[in-house]
Amino acid sequence: MNEVEEILSVFEKNGKEENLKGMARYGIRFEKAFGCNIPLLRNLAKSYKNNHELALKLWKTRIHEARIMAFLIDDYEKVTIAQAENWLKDVKSWDICDGLCNNLLYKTPFAYKKAVEWTKRKDEFRKRAGFVMMAVLSVHDKKQKDETFTGFLEIISKHCDDDRNFVKKAVNWALRSIGKRNFVLNHLAIETAEQIRKNESKTSKWIANDALRELKNEKTMSVILRRENKLNVIKL
Question: In terms of pTM, does the model score above 0.90?
Fold first, then answer.
């Protein structure tokens, strides 16, 4: 039994019909799935870390859990732009889109370039991926300069009227994430949201109002303050 067969046998033994029904309720789309939960997949992935060739084989199976395993175990240093594009082309569900970006693609050297490029795509999930990448990078890349995220805010302003559910939620996610990075970006994100709110489209108003509720609340301010105090201590 090869590694792909071993992994699929684990899926088959642990899959549950109730999980499949839950996935459907949350709008998760799949051609074939066993109904395995994420903790199981993450635990299983530990035994196959940084296995690029196996990741490619798992993705080709088109099985939902196998594709999750693929982005959990792949070696980001071996991921090419062509692979990223091809995998995104296959994506038909928001959880695979988000997981792919949040676990693998943001680590690649072309992450910032593709984040911008994908926001210009017409396909719903590739466009979503661009904004998910912006959100994820704003959280994980502690060393990136504010100017990069200021540029992202300008892009967000241009795409705030896309009323497709999976796009507008990603735009909102990116706006909120950037605005929680530090006080400078918080101020700029609030300005961006207030400007967006002036647009006539319902989508723009929803994105802006939802973001402003989080960006202006005391909890967010406290989180940013603790983060900046911690950075100041490190610098000293």
Answer: yes
